[in-house]
Design brief:
Helices cover about 55% and strands about 20% of the residues. The strands form two sheets. It has a three-stranded antiparallel sheet with strand order 1-4-5. The longest helix is centred in the middle third of the chain and has 60 residues.
Length: about 180
C-alpha cells in the first residue's frame, strides 16, 4: 500500500476515547472490573467470616475443654478411692476376729471409723445390704440360693461391699442372690 492509502484508512477509523474502550471490555462474556472499594468490601467480608468462624471454633474448644475437665476430676477421684478399698476390706475382715485387749480393740475401731469418715467426707457411699432388691448395675451376683423367705431377685448375703461416688459406681457389691 502506498503512504497515501494508509493515511486515508487511518483517517476513516476514528479513535475511541478511553471510556469507550473500558465499556467495550465490559461485555457479558468477560469478567466485570471491580473497583478498589468493592475489592476492599469483599476482603472485609471474607475476613469477618473467617473471624466469626474462628470465634465459633474457639467457643466450641472452650466448652469441650471445660466438659473434659469436669469429667476428669470425678474419674480421678474414683480411681484413687478404688485403690484404698482393699485396705478397707482387710480392716473389715480383721474387725471380725477376736481381739486380745480392750485397748487394741478400741484403737482398731478408731482406725476403721476414721477411714470411713474420710471416705464419707469425699462423698463415697457404701451400698449392698442383705434384703435389698438385686440390681445388676450395682451388684455382682456370684452365688444363687433358694430361700422361700426371701422374694425373687433379692440380695441374700453380701460377700463384698460396694461403693459409689454420686451416681458413679466405684466397685459393685459382690452378693449372693435368692431366686
Amino acid at each position: 500500500m502506498s503512504k497515501k492509502n494508509k493515511q486515508e484508512k487511518e483517517q476513516e477509523i476514528p479513535e475511541m476515547p478511553e471510556e469507550s474502550v473500558e465499556a467495550a471490555d465490559e461485555s457479558p462474556v468477560s469478567e466485570e472490573k471491580i473497583t478498589p472499594l468493592e475489592a476492599l468490601e469483599k476482603k472485609n467480608a471474607e475476613l469477618n467470616d473467617r473471624y466469626l468462624r474462628l470465634m465459633a471454633e474457639y467457643e466450641n474448644y472452650r466448652k469441650r475443654s471445660t466438659k473434659e475437665k469436669s469429667e476428669i476430676y470425678p474419674q480421678a477421684m474414683a480411681n484413687a478411692v478404688e485403690k484404698f478399698l482393699p485396705v478397707l476390706d482387710n480392716l473389715d475382715r480383721a474387725s471380725g476376729f477376736e481381739r486380745t485387749t480392750d485397748e487394741f480393740a478400741q484403737g482398731f475401731d478408731m482406725i476403721c471409723q476414721s477411714f470411713s469418715h474420710v471416705l464419707e467426707s469425699i462423698g463415697v457411699e457404701q451400698f449392698g445390704q442383705a434384703g435389698e432388691p438385686f440390681d445388676p448395675t450395682l451388684h455382682n451376683a456370684v452365688m444363687h440360693t433358694e430361700d422361700p423367705e426371701l422374694g425373687s431377685n433379692v440380695v441374700a448375703q453380701v460377700l463384698q461391699k460396694g461403693y459409689k461416688i454420686g451416681d458413679r459406681v466405684i466397685r459393685c457389691a459382690m452378693v449372693q442372690v435368692a431366686n
